[in-house]
Amino acid sequence: MSTLPKVAWIGLGIMGSPMSENLIKAGYQVTGFTLEQEKLDRLSAAGGTVAGSIAEAVRDADVIVTMVPASPQVEAIAYGPEGILENAKSGALLVDMSSITPQTSVDLAKAAKDKGVRVLDAPVSGGEAGAVEAVLSIMVGGEQADFDEAKPLLEALGKTIVLCGPHGSGQTVKAANQLIVAVNIQACAEAVVFLEKSGVDLKAALDVLGGGLAGSTVLTRKKDNFLARDFKPGFRIDLHHKDMGIVTDAARNVGAALPVGAVVAQLVASLRTQGDGGLDHSALLRAVERLSGAQV
């Protein structure tokens, strides 16, 4: 019998499915629940166990991992008679890997403590590719002892795993991450349009830029999206729009000015209103092309 903790996984989307599968590959017993039957079938095919409800999934779990889109979804699965807190056993560790507001994480930790459940907020960066390859960056908020307990499990999902401070700190760092990523994608998109309109070989230009100071993980990961105009979602514009709302609101609360971030947040919002919310965030290129006179 495995001595590894039993894991419940709630939320099997673009990120959650490959992450849960990496835990299974690492030897963990994973019981999962999500709303889409095809995602449950995928978990079962990978060697996981399918639950019929959140309550069933978490009842015997030592560790509960959640990966859902936003704060309302976290609250929906955590609270209420059929939710995690009412059905998890005392002493269980809840690791919320969703990207939500810092305050939601703080409130969840307080509510969970009353139920005897410990909580870490542990949002990730790296996109679908990072989830598949188990090389995510994981930024964690919570207690040191809980982090130490969770770290072996997190090491099956990512490479850079850091406790950033108390509850909510992981979400604050994730908000900063999303600010940097969005501004970086926007800069790359503007460079792509500039280069193409100048008649430069785009592939050659991006190759050489990637080797210099302008190089970044964003450029490396998204270069092919730009070249092929392939915007199949790895991380959807809809979700980045949500994250830009989180960071701009949090920054306002602490008195931090985000002049460039505010502009990029508006550009992300405009993409959604033009029907591009389901595309990958590299589709910020489409916004720059429209502003530059292209019909896309």
Automatic annotation (TrEMBL):
Q: Where are the transmembrane segments?
A: none
**Keywords of the record:** NAD, Oxidoreductase
Spell out the InterPro entries in the cross-references.
6-PGluconate_DH-like_C_sf, 6PGD_dom2, 6PGDH_NADP-bd, HIBADH-like_NADP-bd, HIBADH-related, NAD(P)-bd_dom_sf, Tartro_sem_red
- List residues of the 6-phosphogluconate dehydrogenase NADP-binding domain: 6-165
Boundaries of every 3-hydroxyisobutyrate dehydrogenase-like NAD-binding domain copy: 168-287
Q: Which family does it belong to?
A: Belongs to the HIBADH-related family.
- Recorded protein name is 2-hydroxy-3-oxopropionate reductase
What organism is this sequence from? Streptomyces marokkonensis
